[in-house]
Every structure is written in C-alpha cells, then in structure tokens.
Input
Amino acid sequence: MQKTLSLKPQISKKKVNIQNAQQIGILFDATKLEPRQEALRYAKALKEQGKKVKVLGFINGHQKDAHFPFKYFDKKSIDWTQRPKGENVKAFLDQDFDIFVFLNPITSVYSEYIAALTNAHLKVGPIADLTDVYDLMINVKNKSSLPAFIKQMESILLKTNVEHEAA
Output
C-alpha cells in the first residue's frame, strides 16, 4: 500500500469563530491599491477588536525598494514549481493562527500552497480546486468585490461554532 503525502500541517483542531479567535492570519493580493486598502482596513478593524493579526501581501510583479506597512512577497519570490519562498513567507508560515483567511474572492496557486502549509484551526478562502486546502470556502457572485467577500465571510463566521444557551 502506498502512502500519500499531505501538505496539511498536523495541528489539533479546536472550535473557533470570529468572536473567540485571538490570532488571525490574513493573506491578500496587494497588487492593486483599492483591494490592498480594503484588506488593511479589515485587518485594522480586527485589531481594534483586540485580535492579534498578522498580514502577508502578494505583489504580482517586482517592487524595487518598495516600502509597505506590511510584510509581502512578490512574483520574484515564487519558484518554478509555483511555491512562494522567502523570509516573509517563512515567518508567516511559522505562526500559529486560530483563523487563517485568504482575503480574495478568487483563489490562486500561491494562496492554496500557503493555506495548505499554514498552522490554523480554521482556514477560510474562496472556492478552490484543491478542496483540502480550506475548511470553509466562500463563493461570491461578484468575483471582483473584496467587500462582498468580507461581508459574506463575516456573516458565516459569526454563525460558526457558536455556543448555544439553553432556552
């Protein structure tokens, strides 16, 4: 019998939702200004709720001497097998999260790779071909609307793993 290798880290799963999550990891496409600002606004809102948030952006291109208020990797950091590499990617993957979110309505090879290797109790992202990558996949009609993705994700996460009280 042949064994299959799983990219999924072996982290013990616990019940988490957006209210009780303390550590949240956010991966986002930072190539365009508007989605970048939306992702950073969302991260800031989570921090204002007392959550520890780590963000990692992806820039589709090469940014020479760019200065962003977040850690990022670019197209030059992706090897020939489509795996993201580099110090910022490694530092992000070394974190443990209650919730990991790929904050984008469209999946990508690099996001699925990072999601598969991230240590998180709950992994959230868009509809993906690799169904083992995310625990919860969000499908929005408007694939270019990050606010719609965030709204639908929040709506679902508010109802996920909630403690019900006796009536």
Summary: The chain has one domain: 23-157. Residues 73 and 89 are 7 Å apart (CA to CA).
